[in-house]
Amino acid sequence: MSADDPTPDKTLTYRGKAIVRAIGTILLTACALMVVLGVTMFSNSLHGLRYATYWSWCFLITTAAIIVALWDMLMLRRVSKQTRRQLFREQFMTPDFVEKLQKKSVDKRQ
């Protein structure tokens, strides 16, 4: 069985899913660490330009994590749609059903 086969016991997957999830985890961890360190240890030393730079980087990392999460969501939606289409074809597109559809389309044209 390949990774594209829809089976009930498999979760939805796409190529590169582990990498995307690892990148998202790293970005979220970095953001959380920056928030904790910025509020506790670096709170006395962050003033002026350092303050703005530090929190700008934290914001950029958070934004990158959100973009990675949205990318992951879109890829899962795409795989889900492909899986649903494939299951529909397997379940309903029997030779008899296809023949009936073709007859209906011919009858409508006439």
Topology:
Elements: H1 17-39, H2 49-92, H3 95-109
Task: Characterise this structure.
The chain has 110 residues and is an all-alpha fold. It has one domain (17-109). Helix content is 75%, strand content 0%. It is built from three helices and no strands. The protein has helices spanning 17-39, 49-92, 95-109. Helix 1 packs antiparallel against helix 2. The longest helix has 44 residues, at 49-92. The two termini are 44 Å apart. The mean pLDDT is 87.
Count of distinct strands: 0
How many domains make up the 3D coordinates? 1
Poorly predicted regions = none
Structural class: mainly alpha
Helix content: over 70%
Shape: rod-shaped
Strand proportion, as a percent range, falls in under 5%
H-E order: HHH
Q: Helical stretch count?
A: 3
Distance between the termini: 44 Å
Instruction: Provide the residue-averaged pLDDT.
Output: 87
Let me know the largest β-sheet: none
Radius of gyration: 25 Å
Q: What's a quick, concise take on this entry?
A:
The chain has 110 residues and is mainly alpha-helical. The chain contains 3 helices and no strands.
Question: Any key phrases for this structure?
Answer:
single chain, mainly alpha, 0% strand, 110 residues
